From TrEMBL:
Transmembrane segments: none annotated. One of its GO terms (biological process) is DNA transposition. Residues 200-285 form the Transposase IS116/IS110/IS902 C-terminal domain. GO terms for molecular function: DNA binding; transposase activity. InterPro entries: Transp_IS110-like_N, Transpos_IS110, Transposase_20. It comes from Segatella copri. It comes from the Bacteria. Residues 5-147 form the Transposase IS110-like N-terminal domain. PANTHER family: PUTATIVE TRANSPOSASE FOR IS117-RELATED (PTHR33055:SF3), TRANSPOSASE FOR INSERTION SEQUENCE ELEMENT IS1111A (PTHR33055). It holds the Pfam family DEDD_Tnp_IS110. This is IS110 family transposase.
Length: 335
């Protein structure tokens, strides 16, 4: 297995590797720059050995073209989180260049090949959903900024009517675009049988809406990459972790590492379930009023409870039943 460290950028990426075909004996790695487009990547792949493994850092959309080409050409590629690479860098370098970054990624892949998680390009429907979800998030953020600015303008002693009318028109346009984007999401979901089936299962849970269901489908790749509630809770940042050392035991705590958007959507679902789900409402009241637990602590527990329900429903292929009563495990075991 020959490791190629790749530092991605928008227009090009730097590659660090040891040239095993060279007649010159050297302990220094080779370096090349590849154009980040289909033509440049295709030319780069022609010189790769059959056992090549690419190791790149997560950089958002800059690595999508490379990932798609790797899947089409049967080339293994693993993406490493920036936090992992930052912790791996034992001594801080005085300089930071693309050459040093790709060499660091290559060194990480050579030292820890067992920690590499190979990635494949998602199917077309999921990739379309991911872009629509990102586009809607951007539109919602713009509308929120506009509403905040509109409220600030109300504090002026004399307000411009032209500015007010302009803000109202932009707000109306954003509302229309958000609604159209949601319609396109539903169109993509309804056009794919497997995605539509899992979407209906997730949506059957009280408190879960369109946006959270799409988020779960995209991030889990239709529940094929992330298959358990614990895995998704760790990804979103809602999973509790032990914090103890020697005689000190602070119990479980929630890590700050996680996907902020996924965590926010889960908390929104937990708040909705607290209001509309009778069982969860009773659980919330018991934990806050009787056990005196903090509100955010209980909402986090409800979010994890919802995740367990969702992943169980998808695994069994069943819809959520609000009137379901769990049987006593002792009776089930005895029978």
């Amino acid at each position: 297995m020959q490791i190629y460290g790749i530092d991605l950028a928008k227009e090009k990426f730097d590659v660090s590797f040891f040239d095993l075909t060279s007649k010159k004996v050297s302990n220094q790695p080779s370096h090349k720059v590849v154009t980040n487009n289909l033509k440049g990547i295709g030319k780069f792949f022609k010189g790769l050995p059959s056992d090549a493994v690419l190791v790149a850092e997560h950089t958002g959309v800059y690595g999508d073209t490379l990932l798609k080409c790797c899947m089409d050409s049967n080339v293994k590629i693993a993406f490493v989180g920036g936090y992992v690479i930052h912790r791996y860098r034992t001594t801080p370098d005085r300089a930071k260049t693309d050459v040093l970054d790709c060499a660091l990624l290559r060194d990480f892949g050579e030292r820890y090949p067992d920690k590499l998680k190979y990635k494949t390009f998602p199917e077309e429907a999921l990739y379309e959903l991911r872009q629509l979800a990102r586009h809607r998030e951007m539109l919602v953020e713009q509308r929120k900024q506009l509403i905040t600015a509109d409220k600030s303008e109300d504090c002026r002693p004399i307000r411009s009517l032209a500015v007010k009318r302009s803000m109202d028109r932009i707000k109306e346009m954003l509302d229309t675009e958000i609604a159209e984007t949601e319609k396109e999401m539903l169109k993509v979901i309804n056009g794919h049988e497997s995605i539509h089936h899992n979407y209906e299962l997730v949506k059957s849970v009280d408190g879960v809406g369109l946006i959270t269901a799409v988020e779960l489908l995209v991030k889990t790749e239709n529940f094929t990459k992330i298959t358990t509630a614990r895995q998704y809770a760790a990804y979103a940042g809602t999973a509790p972790y032990e914090k103890s050392s020697g005689k000190m035991d602070k119990g479980a705590h929630i890590s700050k590492i996680g996907n902020r958007r996924s965590k926010t959507l889960l908390y929104i679902c937990a708040e909705s379930a607290r209001l509309h789900n009778k069982e969860i409402k009773l659980y919330y009241e018991r934990r806050t009023l009787i056990d005196k637990k903090p509100r955010h602590y209980v909402l986090n527990a409800i979010a994890n409870k919802l995740l367990r329900i969702i992943f169980t429903l998808v695994e069994k292929g069943e819809y959520y039943d609000a009137n379901f009563i769990r049987q006593d495990p002792r009776v089930v075991k005895h029978n």
